Amino acid sequence: MMTTTSCIISLPLVLFFSHLIILSAQPPPFTYHNCSLSKGTYIKSSAYETNLNTLLSRLTLDTVIDYGFYTSSFGESPNKVHAQGLCRGDVEPYSCRKCLNDAKTLLPKLCSYQKDAFGYYEFCTFQYSSRSLLGIYRFPDFSYGFNNPEDAKDGESYTKALNDLMISLKTKAAAGDSTFKLAVGYKEADESEIVYGLAQCSPDLSRRDCDACLVKAISKIPDCCENKIGGRVIKFSCNLRFERVHFYYD
Q: How far apart are CA 202 and CA 87, in angstroms?
C-alpha cells in the first residue's frame, strides 16, 4: 500500500522566521553618529535627495579599491552631494564594503533630511555633506570619546606607555600616503600590562592636518579615558583607539 506524508507548517512559525530574516538584514546600530553637523536640510523628492540616493548607491561599487577609502561627489551646485567612507586600515576589502554598505543604508534613515551626517562603526566611518570633503580637516574642535571602564593596574605607568605609544603612532600615520594613513603598535607598560594602539587619518588629509587631528585626539584621552585600559577618540577626519588586548589585525 502506498503511503503519503504531509508537512504542515504553522503560519505563526513562518512569520516568526520571516521576522528573523528581516531583522538579520538590518544594519547594526552605529557606535556613534551625528546628524547635527550643520543646519542644512533638504525636502523629500528634491534634487538633493535624488543626488544623495544616487551617490550612495554607487559609492562602494568599485571593487578595484582595496585600501579602504571611498570618496565621490554627485550632482551640480547648489544640490551637489559629497560622500566619504573610510575603513579601518587592517580590515579586508569585503568586510570594508560590508561595513560601508551598512553605514550608507542606516545613516540617511537616522538623519532624515539632514544634508550633513556622520556615522562610526568599529571597522569604518561614513559621512556625507553638501560641502566638499576631499582634503578637508573637518570640525577640528569636535571629538567624541568613550572608554573600557576597567582601570589599569598601575595607572601612572600605563598612562606613560600610552602617551609614548600614541605620539609614535601619530607620527607614523601622518607620514602615510594619499591612500593609507594608519599606524598600529604596542608598548609595555609594566611586567603585567601591554597597551595596544591604533591611529588613523582620512588619507586625503595633508601630513600637517593629519598630525594636527591626531594631536587633538590624543589631548582628549584624559577627558574620556584617564587610567582606563581601553578607549577611543573619534573625530570626523581621524580616530584613535587603545586597549590592553591585541584588537587589530596584523
A: 9
Domains and CATH numbers, the chain: 29-129 (3.30.430.20), 144-243 (3.30.430.20)
Nearest to 238 by CA among 222, 217, 219, 224: 217
21-32: pLDDT as tens digits? 333 478 999 999
Q: Which residues pair with 147 in a beta bridge?
A: 231
Question: What cell numbers appear for 51 in the block?
Answer: 543626488
CA–CA separation, 206 and 220 (whole Å): 22
CA distances (Å), origin 167, targets 107, 183, 196, 240: 33, 11, 13, 11
Taking residue 13's Cβ as centre, other Cβ atoms within 10 Å add up to: 9
Question: For the segment 82-134, what is each residue's pLDDT rounded down to a tens digit?
Answer: 999 999 999 999 999 999 999 999 999 999 999 999 999 999 999 999 999 99
Tally of CB atoms within 10 A around 2: 3
Cis omega (within 30 of 0) for bond into 78: yes
CA distance 81 to 116: 9
Distance CA 37, CA 122 (A): 21
CB count within 10 Å of CB 214 equals 29
